Amino acid sequence: MIDFINVTKEYSDTSALNNVSFHIENGEFVFIVGHSGAGKTTLTKLLLREEKATEGKIIVDGIDVTALRASKIPRYRRKLGMVFQDFRLFGDKTAYENIACIMRAVGTPGSEIRRRVPALLRTVSMEQKGNHFPKELSGGEQQRIALARAIANNPDIIIADEPTGNIDPEMSLDIMNMLMKINHLLGKTVIVVTHDLDLVEYFGHRVITLDEGKLGSDVNLPSEAEGEGGLFHE
């Protein structure tokens, strides 16, 4: 579970978040939306503990993230899988190696890596591209590899920061379907931070809106996608 409890984040010249509170249950799919400067990036940094709240508490699965000592942050971050808008793949490593190196970093045995990486590539329909380097892949394909990497160490929570920002509309639907699949079939909590209101309206689910650092609204929208034969279309 994730709890933001009266969270405020202030910088020297501005208040990025102001007294924000919300609760996310395990296994929920939630959109965080808002215009540029609304506080979405700050919220993500607070969850990752790249920044520390000025006031309030952030509790993730019973862990008070705001009180974490620096030595405990790397272990906490293993609970989170991050998908970035700019992919952040290693250009000198193949798709397979981009996933495998994340697993090696947390001490996963080689036999487990050899077993799981092909399965992860199949999960994102990239089993034929494992030996390709990022420059040989389209933007949508790179984002698929980034998504496989995000779930490689079996995190409890997936945070996707503008995951469709650098790919075309068709691929955007593809990536969103995969995030939905991870949520529904693997039971992961998925948080999608986006400004793409068309995608939000199409896929529905819970939508938390930030407005100038404050909680603007928290609503559940119906899904248009479910009326078109289900979410996980090919």
Overview of this protein structure:
- The chain is 33% helix and 26% strand.
- With 234 residues, the chain is an alpha/beta fold.
- Helix 3 (95-105) packs parallel to helix 5.
- It folds into 2 domains: 1-79 and 155-228 and 230-234, Rossmann fold; 91-154, no CATH class.
* Amino- and carboxy-terminal Cα gap: 31 Å
Superfamily (CATH H level) name of the largest domain: P-loop containing nucleotide triphosphate hydrolases
Number of helices: 7
CATH topology of the largest domain: Rossmann fold
* Count of discrete domains: 2
DSSP E strands, number = 10
Output the radius of gyration: 18 Å
CATH architecture of the largest domain: 3-Layer(aba) Sandwich
Indicate the proportion of strand residues: 25-35%
For the record, what CATH class of the largest domain applies?
Answer: Alpha Beta
Biggest beta sheet summary: 6 strands, mixed
Query: Which outline best applies?
Result: globular
- Which stretches are low in confidence, meaning pLDDT under 50 for 5 or more residues running? 229-234
Overall mean confidence score, pLDDT: 92
| Fraction of helical residues | 25-40%
Major β-sheet strand ordering: 6-7-8-3-9-10
SS class:
alpha/beta
What is the succession of H and E elements?
Answer: EEEHEEHEHHHEHEHEE
Keywords:
alpha/beta, 2 domains, four-stranded antiparallel β-sheet, 7 helices, 26% strand
Topology (elements, then pairings):
Layout (H helix, E strand, L loop, with lengths): L1 E9 L4 E10 L4 E5 L6 H9 L6 E6 L2 E2 L8 H5 L2 E4 L11 H11 L4 H14 L15 H13 L5 E5 L7 H18 L2 E6 L2 H7 L1 E7 L2 E8 L13
Parallel strand pairs: 3-8, 3-9, 6-7, 7-8
Antiparallel strand pairs: 1-2, 1-4, 4-5, 9-10
